[in-house]
Amino acid sequence: MTKTIYIIGAGLAGSEAAWQAAKRSANVILYEMRPNKMTPAHKTSKFAELVCSNSLRAAGLENAVGVLKEEMRQLDSLIMQAADATKVPAGGALAVDRNDFSEYITHKLQSLANITIINEEVTDIDKFINSTFLIPNSSLIIASGPLTSDRLAENLKRLTGDDSFYFYDAAAPIMTLESIDFNIAFRASRYDKGGDDAYINCPMNRDEYLTFREALINAEKTHTHDFEREIFFEGCLPIEVIASRGEDTLRFGPMKPVGLVNPHTNETPYAVVQLRQDNKDGTLFNLVGFQTHLTFGEQRRVFSMIPGLSNAEIVRYGVMHRNSYINSPRLLKPTMQLKSNENILFAGQMTGVEGYVESAASGLIAGINAVKLLNDSEPLIFPIQTCHGALANYITTAVADFQPMNVNFGLLPPLEYRVKRRDKKSKLSERALNSMSQFIQSENL
After folding, report:
1. What one-character DSSP code corresponds to residue 172?
2. Is the preceding omega at residue 307 within 30 degrees of 0, hence cis?
3. Torsion angle of the four alpha carbons 104, 289, 308, 206, in this order, in degrees rounded to the nearest 10
4. Which residue in 110, 124, 363, 432 has its CB near the most CB atoms, within 10 A?
5. Alpha-carbon torsion 300, 271, 92, 262, what sign?
């Protein structure tokens, strides 16, 4: 009987898992409900659609997410192939043309003979397993994502025997370049890092800032369902929530003016709103850090108060949507296997990793280990000295109230020797990449 890996969800994690499994000659059946059923945030039927920012965050090795991306490149990640092929200017970050990025991944997976794609919503996990999942000839990767449908979410609760948690994520508005007033706005990166064209900056004086903050706090928000509670992940707070936490929270957060000088005045602004290129042609820009829960009408009104954006054309409004994740410390092994059924693996934001890159990295681990299971080999636990291993270790061992987590150097074990503080990140990066290289060689990955 043909050994098969079933994957539910063709987001970042599911796509990466499918690629890693298929390139190791496994037979893969990939389920994706779009376009037959859409989510509140997705706009296309393409795989790995980026529904929030188009940035995969920091590119340099002085940041843990930069190291994670480099580890993924070592492992021939499809997500990183696509990102490198479709990147757009973003200073010290890696940002992509979101349409080309998704198209690249979709084409790659559709072109592989050992991947079968089924556009169908999986709603009944028990029925799905009983009809198609024949241990030991199959394994299942659940990568249904933070926007898992309600029916599947209820099934997953029964499968895990534990209630899923959820939080809210918010997507930032996107505006056209031609509608931005450059008599007020200016192009620059903080401290001139990454070139002058990477970001567009809209400067504010104190009065403009205070007026804008007041309007933001008091603007009308969209309403959630009565059965849902608003639980915000600290790494992706709506801009109005940040503003409500204090007069200067925006100025020390997404609107910080440090490292920028307004060429129109030769002064550092009191506050700055930044826009980052969103597509390859540089015709669209998104408001950096401006994830929002405001109604569309209020977004038009309030964001037009930003100097330089009084006549800005919003081509995509910010939206709020539910993100679901499981209690991974209780449920998962660091191999991404479900403790109660080791032939079932989870991947993506469903596991409690936060961020595009982290989601894809968890899919990479799950895809490799699903193949290991089919080959009757021991699933791999990635070295904790690597960013992959440290992140997997965190989400499966965290204590107290489990919250989604971005990769960061604090998850890695301390260095075995003392170094100057300024050298710590570079040494952690060097150790992580060396550890991954040795791991790949020793495991013949």
Report:
1. P
2. no
3. -170
4. 363
5. positive
The ranges assigned to domains in the chain are 4-166+323-442, 172-318
**Residues, the chain, total?**
445
Q: Whole-structure pTM over 0.85, yes or no?
A: no
The first and second tokens of residue 307, run together, are: 């100097």
The answer to whether 66 and 59 have CB atoms below 8 angstroms apart is yes
90, 277 Cβ separation under 8 angstroms: yes
What's the CATH superfamily of 4-166+323-442? FAD/NAD(P)-binding domain (3.50.50.60)
Q: What share of the chain is helix, strand, coil (3-state, %, to 5)?
A: 35, 20, 45
CA distance 78 to 72: 9
Gap between the Cα atoms of 217 and 233, Å rounded: 19
> Strands 93-96 and 55-58, how do they pair?
antiparallel
Contact 98, 83 (CB under 8 A): no
- Find, among 327, 292, 135, the residue nearest to 215 by Cα: 292
Query: Phi-psi bin for 348: left (phi > 0), alpha (psi -120 to 50), beta?
Result: left
Of the candidates 37, 90, 30, 48, the one whose C-alpha atom is nearest the C-alpha of residue 274 is: 90
Two structure tokens written together for 326: 């499981």
Query: Which of 354, 335, 336 lies closest to 402 in space, CA to CA?
Result: 354
Buried b (16+ CB within 10 A) or exposed e, 27-44: bbbbbbbbeeeebebbee
Q: What is the CATH number of domain 172-318?
A: 2.40.30.260
Residue 443, Cβ neighbours under 10 Å: how many?
12
Binning pLDDT at 50, 70 and 90, where does residue 227 land?
very low
The per-residue pLDDT for range 289-331, each reduced to its tens digit, is 998 989 999 999 999 999 999 999 998 888 776 778 898 999 9
Lowest mean pLDDT among 34-48, 97-111, 338-352: 34-48
Q: What is the DSSP string of 316-377?
A: E---EEEEEE--HHHHB-TTSEETTEEEEEE-SGGGTB-SHHHHHHHHHHHHHHHHHHHTT-
Question: Average of pLDDT values for 398-421?
Answer: 85
Half-sphere exposure of 268 (CA within 13 A, CB side): 9
Report the alpha-carbon distance of residue 68 to residue 138 in Å, rounded: 29
In sequence order, what DSSP letters do the residues of 116-141 get, joined into one string? EEE------HHHHHHHH--TTSEEEE
The answer to whether 94 touches 55, Cβ cutoff 8 Å, is: yes
